[in-house]
Design brief:
With 223 residues, the chain is an alpha/beta fold. The strands form two sheets. The protein has a six-stranded mixed β-sheet, sandwiched between helices. It has a four-stranded antiparallel β-sheet with strand order 2-1-4-5, covered by helices on one side. The chain has one domain: 3-Layer(aba) Sandwich (Rossmann fold), CATH 3.40.50.300. β7, α6 and β8 form a beta-alpha-beta unit.
Length: 223
């Protein structure tokens, strides 16, 4: 079953001689439960694509459909609610709240949405990610790898339709990167989660089910 789809997706900046085509007609389809990597060099458009997929920015033209909903047809308030309930994000900078402990950071998006966390599910995720003994720790008491595990747990906890990861190992050393990506793949398989990961690292991308290549705002391979 198709969970994510883009149709002729374009994102242009500037005009005339200064026109930049960050995305130039991207057509992409991701099946439910699939782990897809989008690979490209700096400036290829891969991060712009992730922002479009997650509704963090609006397209110049084209459509993005997530779980059957064309997200650019939603107003800003409805898009914010839809994004919070259906899309989990993992960024390379972790984005943890420094005054909240591990557990509080994980359930924060659900509390903001007025939802009651599924505590058994959250605890299961924490155990798999090796965070069960760090429940009460603050972010500054964790290593970079542990902080990224918290970010992954937070993305999984609300059981979103899809998880988008933007260079999730960008701030980690190679050994920790392998561990974190292995856990990302493990949790995805364990919970049947759909994941799209943006990366410039070819070796990391090979852990996914499918690799898509993007250059100059266009998909050039792996579709």
């Amino acid at each position: 079953m198709e969970i994510l789809k883009t149709k002729n997706l374009k994102k242009y900046y500037g005009s005339g001689e200064n026109l930049v085509k960050a995305l130039d007609g991207v057509n992409l389809s991701v099946e439910e439960g699939e782990f897809v990597s989008v690979v490209g060099t700096s400036g290829s458009g891969k991060s712009t694509l992730l922002h479009m997929l997650g509704g963090l920015d609006y397209a110049t033209s084209g459509d993005v459909t997530v779980a059957g909903k064309e997200i650019f047809k939603l107003n800003e308030t409805d898009l914010t609610i839809f994004r919070r309930r259906n899309i989990g994000f993992v960024f390379q900078n972790y984005n943890l709240v420094p005054i909240l402990n591990v557990y509080e950071n994980i359930i924060l998006p659900m509390e903001l949405d007025g939802e009651r966390p599924d505590k058994d599910f959250v605890w299961e995720v924490m155990e798999i990610l090796g965070l069960d003994k760090k429940k009460n720790n603050l972010p500054n008491q964790l290593s970079g790898g542990q902080q990224q595990r918290v970010a992954i747990a937070r993305a999984l906890a609300s059981k979103p339709a899809i998880i988008l990861a933007d260079e999730p190992t960008g701030n980690l050393d190679s050994k920790t990167s392998q561990e974190v990506l292995g856990l990302l793949k493990l949790t995805g398989e364990q919970f049947g989660q759909t994941m799209v990961m943006i990366t410039h690292n070819e070796a990391m991308a090979q852990l996914s089910d499918r690799v898509i290549r993007i250059e100059d705002g266009r998909i050039v391979g792996g579709q």
